[in-house]
Amino acid sequence: MVRADWSGAFCPVRRGLDVVGDPWSLLIMRDALHGRRRFEDFRSSLGIADSVLSRRLTALVDAGLLTRNDYRAARRTHAEYRPTQAGTDLLPVLHALATWAEVHTTLPDGGGHMAVIHTACGAETRSADTCTACREPLRSEDVAWDKPWHDRRDALVGPVDAS
Q1: Are β-strands 143-147 and 152-155 bridged in parallel, bridged antiparallel, or unpaired?
Q2: Which Gene3D superfamilies match (predicted)?
Q3: What is the percent of the chain where pLDDT is above 70?
Q4: pLDDT at 163
Q5: Which domain holds residue 21?
Q6: pTM for the predicted model, two decimal places
Q7: Tens digits of residue pLDDT in 18-68
Q8: End residue of a domain, out of 86, 101, 128
Q9: Is 117 part of any domain?
Q10: Pairing state of beta strands 115-118 and 143-147?
Q11: Which of 2, 50, 134, 162 yields a CA-CA distance of 20 to 30 A from 118?
Q12: Strands 115-118, 123-125: pairing kind
């Protein structure tokens, strides 16, 4: 199904959804903020078809949420994708979605509460953009997600240096 182009809409929600309204786009950004860089890493993590992943990565680069850097390896050019400042600015959206889902969706058997940890102070936070313990703004490079179903804590990454 082809949807309407909302890039010229007055409503900022529509314009935002025009960029990240596809579920794959948010999942790719989640993975990019967790430090995944390469096509194969995204594909393996998400179980996404190559054609869909390729289109979404291109769209996220075109929208300015990711940068693409080509590098040469094993007689072939590969690409790495890194979040920009606009991409890391999606972190509160991901936190809000995760917090909402923790309350309003059913946790599958074997799961557990995903805690958002503000590594700068060490406390769990329930806010999308400000630490509820120390009141400091949450920056991607100062946040980790405790994922009990993986029995690990995943640190997030900051934006690429624009210089």
Answers
A1: antiparallel
A2: Winged helix-like DNA-binding domain superfamily/Winged helix DNA-binding domain
A3: 97
A4: 46
A5: 12-86
A6: 0.89
A7: 899 999 999 999 999 999 999 999 999 999 999 999 999 999 999 999 999
A8: 86
A9: yes
A10: antiparallel
A11: 162
A12: antiparallel
Structure tokens at 145: 């997600």
For the segment 88-107, the average pLDDT, to the nearest whole number, is 93
Tokens matching residue 163: 């210089």
Name which of 89, 25, 94 is nearest 60 in CA terms: 25
If pLDDT is split at 50, 70 and 90, which confidence band does 2 have? low
DSSP 142: G
Quick one: 139 and 96 in the same domain? yes
Name which of 75, 76, 72, 83 is nearest 37 in CA terms.
83
Dist CA 34 CA 59 (whole Å) = 19
Q: Kindly state the DSSP code that residue 2 receives in the 8-state scheme.
A: -
The average confidence (pLDDT) of the chain is 91
Residue ending a domain, among 86, 101, 130, is: 86
46 and 79 share one domain? yes
Nearest to residue 60, comparing CAs of 40, 88, 34? 88
Token representation of residue 160? 């690429």
* DSSP type of residue 70: E
Shared-domain flag, residues 94 and 146? yes
Partner residues linked to 79 by β-bridges: 70
